[in-house]
Sequence to fold (396 residues):
Amino acid sequence: MSLQTPPRSHIIYTIAVIGFIYTLHLVIPMYSNSSFLSIFADETTLSYIYMAGAALSIFGYLIAPAIIRYFGNYKTTIALIIIQIALFWGMITVTSEIALTTIFIIQTAIIALISLCLDIFLEVYTEGSNVGRVRGLYTATLNASWVVAPLIGTMLISGTDNYRNTYVAALAMLFPLLYLVYRNFPKFKDPNYIHLSPHQLLKHIFKNANWVRLFFANIILQVFYSWMVVYSPIYLNKNIGFSWEDIGIILVIMLIPFPLIQYPLGKLSDGGYGGHKYGQKWIMAIGFIIMGISTISLSLFTEKSVILWATLLFITRIGAAAAEIMIETSFFKTISVRDSAALGIFRITRPLSYFIAPAITLIGLYFTTNENIFAIVGFICLIALIPIIGIKEART
Fold:
């Protein structure tokens, strides 16, 4: 596809930078969101808030293809970022609990839709033979910000009453994000997106057995992420007794595997090391095994040790990083750039997980203790091996 834009390699690196800034704005407040909301919402209400945000995100993904077809991906992205600026300003200034909750739910959906738009930009400029490398670079770059952002967030909190500082920092990230999108994509030419009714879309998805299996595996991965993001910081703070400064250190160490191993694994899936390139599903399976076993082991420890918890959580993320990049690579090797609707359905797995994660906690705590929820999440990770075994390798 010929586009009136900068060279393909240049624009891919630009999208990676945009993705890094986007993820910074997302993650800086992410690990303290639940603690901020828990000031006026109990654990059950908190679960319902996240579920409402997930529901709105799913609705957004369903209508996004029609909006993008009508306005174009460039204009849609610009509009979403401007809306997000207004919403984050509300998170900083609003005092009403109902208004704060409403703004939080809406911004959750806007964040998801911006990510979808960035996926479309990247997919347009990705050549089939380099999907693993490009996705590895992009995912590793995004996850590099996951390493930096929690430390920034916890430093900004520096006490139980300073959660809004994280939204100030996140708001600041949106202005360079807006500029970079505005500067680099005014001549972006949208592909001829496939238009499908909901019924046709479901038939389109389910006729591809690989997509169904990848969707299922991705739901489990996203459940792991969403549960860890929402509940593990509260657990470390309230149950184990770590300060937010200690939690920041733990989170930074925990997230190092993402930028460290995802690009090499993506390159491996393209045959970048000795021509071997057909190991996606086996690397994916090993990743889920590591995730599952290491997460189960977290239920066995209650010591207040930064080194211990950082090491254990680091191991869980080795598995998660491997599983994530192989799911991304396997999916994007089989999707067309015109398939924005299928891409939207694939990304629905993220908000869908925010229905499942609170349910795990609500149901789990009825029968067992906080510690044993880690074991439940770990066993759920191992269930992903069932669909993974049937995945057929993409050989592009």
